[in-house]
Amino acid sequence: MKQSFIIVTEISEDVITNGLMDFANQYTGESFVNNIELYRENETDKFLILFSNVPSFDHFCFAVNYIRYIKTPNKKLPLVFGYYLNESDNYPFLTKGFVKTYVSLNDKEYDNVNVVNNLNETYLFDFGGRQKKLSIIEESFEVPTINLNNFNHSLNIIPSPVENKPWWKIW
């Protein structure tokens, strides 16, 4: 697959659907949330998320983090791995091609992701734009092969329209 994608496991379809709708609504007006596609792997609880409009690396990382911390009925966090197809030089640690993004199992700060590049270097990337090379390798770089024929299209997620109220009706 030659596009950015996110794989999510250990979550129900209802929870991932509602979480993605909430995420899209938070970014209403941003083109990357128009038409987020949700797929479910045949006979499993593995979900594939595709963006019709490619998000920036920062927005992609926000999505991975947001999905990791979706509220679930059993309070168990889903496993979330993002694979971002990088074609720019926005950050020095990003290599051309895919980078793997995920939230560490040991995360206690809730506002960052780990990024593994194709050199197997791991960086902590926080949402203030700071990055720090980590000495431990929690996840190795690998990009899974995705065959869309093994997935059923579940839903296209589109944010709710913004209601423009006249200024006198804000209260």
List the helices and strands and how they pair.
Elements: E1 5-9, H1 13-26, E2 36-41, E3 47-51, H2 57-68, E4 79-86, E5 97-102, E6 112-116, E7 122-126, E8 131-134, E9 151-157
Antiparallel strand pairs: 1-3, 1-4, 2-3, 2-9, 4-5, 5-6, 6-7, 7-8
Q: Explain this structure to me?
A:
This protein is an alpha+beta fold. 15% of the residues lie in helices and 30% in strands. It is built from 2 helices and 9 strands. The protein has a 9-stranded antiparallel sheet. The radius of gyration is 17 Å and the shape is globular.
Major sheet details = 9 strands, antiparallel
H/E element sequence? EHEEHEEEEEE
How is the quaternary structure best described? Answer: single chain
Could you give the distance between the termini? Answer: 48 Å
Major sheet: arrangement of strands: 8-7-6-5-4-1-3-2-9
User: Taking all residues together, what is the mean pLDDT?
Assistant: 92
- Helix content, binned percent: 10-25%
Number of strands: 9
| Shape designation | globular
Strand content: 25-35%
**Helix vs. strand class:** alpha+beta
- Unreliable segments of 5+ consecutive residues: none
* Rg from Cα: 17 Å
* Count of helix runs: 2
Search tags:
9 strands, alpha+beta, globular
At a glance:
The protein is α+β, with helices and mostly antiparallel strands and 171 residues long. Helix content is 15%, strand content 30%. 27% of the residues are buried.
